[in-house]
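Example record for the data management plan.
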Amino acid sequence: MNAWLVRIGSVLVLAAIGFWLVSATEWADTEIPTPASGEAKKNSFYGAQVMLRELGVQVVKHDSLDTMPPAQARLVLASSHWDMFPEREQRLRQWVEQGGHLVMPSHLINSDLLEGWIPLVREKPPAGDEKKESKEPSGPRKRLPKSQFAEPAKDADCHAVTEPETVPASFAGGRSFRICTWWSPARYRPADKQPPPVWTVLGAKGTEAIRVQVGRGTVTVMPWGLWHNASLTRGDNALFAVAAVQARSGAEVWFVAEETREPFLRWIWNKGWAALLVGLLALAVALWRAAVRFGPLAPSAGTHRRSMAEQVRGTAGFLHMHGADALHAAQLRALNESAGRQLRGYARRDAAARAAAIAQATGLEAAMLVRAMGERARHAGAMSVDLEVLETARRRLDAHGPFMPSPSSSSTS
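Corresponding structural encoding:
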């Protein structure tokens, strides 16, 4: 019995929760736009270009206005920096006057273009479009109804426009369009004493689009939002864009939407790769020459090892400059410096004790060292023998340190 009560209670609780969910919630369909991908993600005019290609129009996409389209072509110019170079405006004017058809958004038409060569003037906005300042009501603040916070309707930016009877109709089906785009405050009309426009579209607030003759070509000024991918399929935006660009089968339409340049390093490589390689090689050589080295370019030879040719040249030069006595004094000084480093207490000894200490360390005869180290007059043969004895003693001290003669060698000597 208790189990049945638990089951019935659980069913009632679930039923109550379900009833509350149904009464407290509302199900509604919501459109979620699919994010753009591929070329449409990078190109805002991708939809318009694909549409024109399907109509048999040759579409050309350029990243700058460095090159002008061919004569009789259409140019859709949307770049805000198209006039960064002064000569571009002159080239654009010449191209239009020779038969080109220019299509530009109304916000890019500046006063210099209007005063220079485009026969248009800006219309004054109607009095009803001027914004009126709303005054705050006195007294306690009232709560606004919920409808005032609701989001605007989906097609709130759509409105009807019409081609007047004074211009040829763009399509045989009628003269009316329903375009969906933001309202542009810049509206234009033909300048005074100018011929009537070739094409114009009127809306409730005035001129929406206008085309005037310039030389043998035309200039079309129109609202721009309907060209973008997200707006092209709304209302009659596609038909309006086709009419504005004067699309015909076989015509050529250029799109210049952004001013882009090749990256600087890539441009240098493409234009002057040979000079760049030479410069980099010169820089590498300069850095290599200025770099800190880990050691000398070549190992230095020991001071105690010299070739016979170097010994002869050095000795001859010294004898020529200073004489034989100076050579003996230099050789004796070199021996005393080596003995001072190798033999303890060498500097405090007299001449005989020094000779005896060197003889014990090198294995040479003490008497021979005394004769070689003494100051006396020598002929050429004696000088040669004494210099050899002194050099032999110095080399033995530097090469082997204190010389310890073996018992056999001492007994033999």
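Summary line stored alongside the record: DSSP finds 13 helices and eleven strands in the chain.
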